[in-house]
């Protein structure tokens, strides 16, 4: 989300969907696809998507008429309350 706020054009929207897992979608008006980087130890940034890729079950980007949506799918631990 921070990268979208810093680098995207137009409005940025966050949508969370809880189903069999948690889907997090960040949309913006840019058509530029995010890409994984392997930041050097001296870099101040460039690790966000790499961290997301390691923590998420799946992630990707889909394009819309007004820009793109970058999404992640994460496992949710079983609800302990029953």
Automatic annotation (TrEMBL):
Organism: Streptomyces bungoensis
Protein name: Histidine kinase/HSP90-like ATPase domain-containing protein
UniProt cross-references to Gene3D superfamilies, sorted A to Z: Histidine kinase-like ATPase, C-terminal domain
């Amino acid at each position: 989300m921070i990268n979208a706020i810093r680098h995207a054009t137009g409005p940025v929207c966050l949508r969370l969907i809880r189903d069999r897992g948690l889907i997090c979608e960040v949309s913006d008006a840019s058509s530029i696809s995010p890409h994984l980087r392997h930041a050097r130890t001296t870099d101040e940034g460039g690790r966000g998507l790499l961290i997301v890729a390691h923590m998420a079950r799946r992630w990707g980007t889909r394009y819309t008429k007004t820009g793109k949506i970058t999404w992640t799918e994460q496992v949710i631990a079983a609800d302990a309350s029953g």
